[in-house]
Design brief:
This protein is mainly alpha-helical. It has 8 helices and 2 strands, in the order ααααββαααα. It has a two-stranded antiparallel sheet. A hairpin with a 3-residue loop joins strand 1 and strand 2.
Length: 159
């Protein structure tokens, strides 16, 4: 992004991107292909029906997934880019042992997004960690290419 986000924009955007149900939905589709909406509950049994509905609606609203006739929910190019970003973040967090040595994928993504949050509102971020600086660059590039994520209405809270 050419200009830093306002504090409110950064908070909303990171809240959206760090949403555990959204992370689970995006990575499940990325790993295993399109998911018919009626199979979401059996595919992601750790999420409540409300979380599944909210995550899929949020993903559609922000252009991350679309309904493919006969296939179900599939990732858009923005969703594929986000899945790649999530993978890079989780790999970095795993190598760093954070947030805990043993934790789930979405917790690792949330941890890295928390670390990158200050960099989204500042002109210059602390780039002392080269790999974290690369993740910051990847995040800002993804946000610049997918500005609908920043400018869309505030996401519905997911329980």
């Amino acid at each position: 992004m050419n200009t830093p986000l306002t504090s409110a924009q950064a908070q909303r955007t990171l809240q959206l991107l760090a949403s555990r149900p959204l992370v689970r939905l995006i990575t499940e589709i990325d790993d295993n292909g399109a998911v018919p909406p009626r199979r979401l509950a059996s595919t992601l049994p750790d999420l409540s029906p409300h979380q599944l509905r909210s995550a899929s609606a949020t993903a559609r609203t922000h252009g991350l997934v679309r309904r493919a006739p006969g296939a179900g929910l599939e990732l858009t190019s923005a969703g594929t880019g986000l899945a790649d970003l999530y993978d890079a973040m989780a790999r970095w967090a795993r190598r760093q042992g954070g947030p805990d040595p043993v934790c789930e994928f979405s917790s690792r993504v949330q941890h890295v997004l928390d670390l990158l949050a200050p960099a989204l509102t500042a002109e210059r971020a602390d780039d002392t960690n080269e790999t974290l600086a690369r993740l910051r660059t990847l995040l800002t590039q993804w946000l610049a290419a997918n500005s609908q994520t920043v400018t869309a209405s505030e996401p519905e809270p997911v329980a």
